[in-house]
């Protein structure tokens, strides 16, 4: 069975003072597991109480944590404020476990044929974790596994926005599948999707989430598919993009075509935004299949690559 490995941060989202397991890579690993896929988390966890809570929650879902080192550093915390269902973050992240992951803690012989490695930009700030990512990505690339990248821009975690955009863009060279929101697309200064494929010819698929406008998938051969938003009144969007990504990866790794993967991911995300928190709101495979049957989401072909 193919494994989707996720490297990066696992942290605590404090929503109205209630702790939820968070961190985009951890969320994706949890989503894949809840959908019946095989996932493993490679980030560093803390030995503190929050770290034990994260370990317990992820392992209870079936996420493989055997390659996630445990450190004495504290767990990162994100205080989340919801305004009309949209999330705003305030991070407490000095000297935390996620940034302490070292390159020599990565098993470079881990990846096998048919596996995938997923990462984000949050741990690409100047830290030990950045170089651990490079070690994992180089090993994965050499092993020929599929690499997916959600840029997941968080300006408050960087010294300045230029450094964030430059670093996030540099790491696109590793990606076979790239995911970003429409806001992130604009933050990079892109005007046309073709510019992304020109900059990183290795990218085969771009997944673009567009909030109330749904999602779109652009392939390197010039095709574009879009799916409308399936939940017009979201309750809580925390982790919704990670749910979309985890579901899309689950479908793609199961050899579903892009159109089916976008439908599947859109339905999973629609369920996610109807509940509170990230992982607790993520659906099971049966729930997604049920919603797909009920809604029969329409996939449309886009005539051009202009947004």
Describe it.
By secondary structure, this protein is an alpha/beta fold. Helices cover 33% and strands 22% of the residues. The protein has a single domain, classed as UDP-N-acetylmuramoyl-L-alanine:D-glutamate ligase (3-Layer(aba) Sandwich). Strands 4-1-9-10-11-12-13-14-15 form a nine-stranded mixed beta sheet, with helices on both faces. Helix 1 (24-34) crosses helix 7 (240-253) and helix 8 (258-272) crosses helix 9 (285-295). The longest helix has 16 residues, at 128-143. It starts with a strand and ends in a 6-residue tail after the last strand.
Please state how the strands of the largest beta sheet are arranged side by side: 4-1-9-10-11-12-13-14-15
Calculate Rg over CA atoms. Answer: 18 Å
CATH topology: UDP-N-acetylmuramoyl-L-alanine:D-glutamate ligase
Helix fraction?
25-40%
Tell me the CATH architecture. Answer: 3-Layer(aba) Sandwich
Strand coverage percent: 15-25%
């Amino acid at each position: 069975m193919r494994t989707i490995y996720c490297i990066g941060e696992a942290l605590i989202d404090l929503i109205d003072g209630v702790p939820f397991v968070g961190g985009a890579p951890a969320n994706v690993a949890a989503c894949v597991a809840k959908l019946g896929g095989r996932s493993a988390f490679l980030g560093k966890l803390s030995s503190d109480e929050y770290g034990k809570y994260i370990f317990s929650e992820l392992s209870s879902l079936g996420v493989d944590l055997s390659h996630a080192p445990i450190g004495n550093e504290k767990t990162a915390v994100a205080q989340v404020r919801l305004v009309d269902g949209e999330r705003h973050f305030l991070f407490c992240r000095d000297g935390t476990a996620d940034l302490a992951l070292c390159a020599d803690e990565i098993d470079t012989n881990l990846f096998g044929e048919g596996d995938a490695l997923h990462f984000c930009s949050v741990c690409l700030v100047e830290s030990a974790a950045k170089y651990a990512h490079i070690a994992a990505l180089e090993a994965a690339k050499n092993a020929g596994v599929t690499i997916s990248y959600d840029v997941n821009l968080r300006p408050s975690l960087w010294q300045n926005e230029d450094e964030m955009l430059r670093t996030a863009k540099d790491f696109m060279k590793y990606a076979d599948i790239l995911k970003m929101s429409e806001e992130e697309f604009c933050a990079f200064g892109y005007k046309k999707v073709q510019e992304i494929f020109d900059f990183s010819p290795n990218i085969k698929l771009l997944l673009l989430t567009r909030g109330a406008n749904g999602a779109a998938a652009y392939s390197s051969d010039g095709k574009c598919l879009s799916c409308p938003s399936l939940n017009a009144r979201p309750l809580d969007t925390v982790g919704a993009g990670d749910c979309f990504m985890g579901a899309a990866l689950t479908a793609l790794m199961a050899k579903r075509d892009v159109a089916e993967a976008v439908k599947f991911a859109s339905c999973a995300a629609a369920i996610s935004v109807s509940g509170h928190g990230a992982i607790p709101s993520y659906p099971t495979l049966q729930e997604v299949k049920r919603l797909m049957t009920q809604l029969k989401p329409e996939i449309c072909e886009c005539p051009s690559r202009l947004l």
